Amino acid sequence: MTRDRKPSKSTCLILNHLIGMTCAKTYGYELMTATGLKSGTLYPILMRLKERGYLASEWGPSETLGRPPRQSYHLTSKGKAYAKRALLDQETSTPSLREVQI
Amino acid sequence: MKHFPTLCLSYAHRIMPDHKKGWAEAMAVELSYIEADRARVSFALGCLRTAVGVSARTRKGLSFIGRGLVASALLLVTVYMTILALMWPSPQVAQLILLLCGFYAVAGVLCAVSVPAMRLYVALLALAGSGAWVVIKIKHIETLDLPHAFLSAVMIEAVGVMCALFIAASYLQLLQDPESEL
Predict the structure, then answer these.
(1) pLDDT of residue B25
(2) Is the ipTM value over 0.90, yes or no?
(3) What is the pTM of this model?
(4) How many folded domains does chain A comprise?
């Protein structure tokens, strides 16, 4: 059962980072370090975003020689709309989040 | 310790449902890009926690809530019996009670992790049986040969409790997350 609830702070952090990364590839560990979230928090959110069609992932060749292919993430068009809505809601309800730049 | 993160991710891959195994593979690849040991362990533990949560929610048989309740009950029994053991005047009986505590803590962990329901029932039955054996044997405590029982009991319980705390953290994370799909 999917509940239509307000996205959490952690989700908003991830959406905020992803919405700013329109051209560059975003990987899991990069997202972790950029948002300050731990893997146990990050991956469930990424899974949920993907299930709801907001996030897409793709396997691509590694940028480092000798390393295995890596999965990158980006927002779908539906996800971008969702992110904008979510971040706007957060901005209006949480003054401190206004410091986060899109 | 160096292989611990890899072991965590292997187990995460094993318990992840089929339609989510891609995520486990992605996590394993990310691990290979992390250099620092502490960061690797922290990352791997988080991924394992994710896998446990996903698996617990999708596993058929005993429901997510049911497992949580049974695990909580078993852990409460463990805590109660630990206190009892620490207050018991006879050291041999205390050792046996602590052994039981260890068994129940492990049972709590088995209940919470993604053990298929049938295996879980068998494990719980075996634990109930061994618990009953211990209780019966308490009457003949003086004739029992239990070398190093105390150390074994403490070790079993310590491992069981640590695993139980880890599993509890997974459940708590789901409770705290407002987008939890329960």
Answers:
(1) 94
(2) no
(3) 0.62
(4) 1
Domain-terminating residue out of B58, B78, B94: B58
Where chain B has pLDDT below 70, the residues are 1, 56-71, 73-75, 77-78, 80-82, 84-182
List, in sequence order, the alpha helices (H) in A1-102: 9-20, 28-35, 39-51, 77-93
- Determine how β-strand A55-60 pairs with β-strand A70-75: antiparallel
Substitution target from A15, A43, A52 for chain B, most B beta carbons within 10 A? A43
Residues of B in contact with A48 (CB under 8 A): 179, 181
CA neighbor of B176 nearest in space, from A31, A11, A22: A11
Q: For residue B120, what are the CA distances in angstroms to B131, B140, B161? A: 16, 31, 18
For an interface test with A, which of B8, B25, B30 has the most A Cβ atoms less than 10 Å from its Cβ?
Answer: B30
Residue A67 contacts B where some CB pair is shorter than 8 Å: yes
Asked, for residue A23, whether it belongs to a domain, the answer is: yes
Judge: A29–B34 Cβ closer than 8 Å, yes or no: yes
Claim to verify: residue B142 and residue B165 sit in the same structural domain: yes
Query: How many Å apart are CA A59 and CA B93, to the nearest integer?
Result: 58
Q: What is the DSSP letter of A100?
A: S
Domain that holds residue B2: 1-58
Segment A47-97, tens digit of pLDDT: 999 999 999 999 988 777 777 889 999 999 999 999 998 888 877 765 554
Say whether B47 and A45 touch across the interface (CB within 8 A). Answer: no
Q: Which residue in the set B20, B46, B179 is minimally distant from A5, CB to CB?
A: B179
Chain-chain contact of B46 with A70 (C-beta, under 8 angstroms): no
